[in-house]
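Cross-check.
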Amino acid sequence: MVNTARRTEEKGQRTPRNLDSYKESGGVKGGGYCGCGATFSSKRWRHGERGELRAGGEELVCPACRRIADHNPAGIVSLSGSYFTEHKAEIENQIKNNVEAEFIKNPLGRIMETVYENNGVTITTTDEKLAEKIGRDVFKSHAGELNITWSDADSPVRVRWSR
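Predicted model, tokenized:
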């Protein structure tokens, strides 16, 4: 069973297209690069190409590195239940593979921190869509109960899976 909820503070009002305060608002002339290896050109962050832009680009800090430095996650994923503890290694490997594949498409989607609890794990991410993808992939592979709570404000998406 999948529950998805979206909350908005502004009823009857148009919401801005991009609510993420960490996203770049304008372009940087000639592009730029971050210390993590991500490059910025044509108003988009990419993976690789660092050597090409280093000569003519300016040094920037990507939104993912800013989120990590501020300890401000965009997504919080909670996985719990007796099934999780029994299949912990398998689920962790699946998450690792998904995150690596997603990183090639979007270098701003990273895992910030993984905290193990009694009967589960809490994973914080730098990207909302990555958190949702982790929850949906675990749900597809292992069934259970998935609850995704989106907020239109600058608060993180919360993904809860249990079985």
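The chain has two domains: 22-61, 73-162. Residues 50 and 114 are 28 Å apart (CA to CA). Passed to J.P. for a second look.
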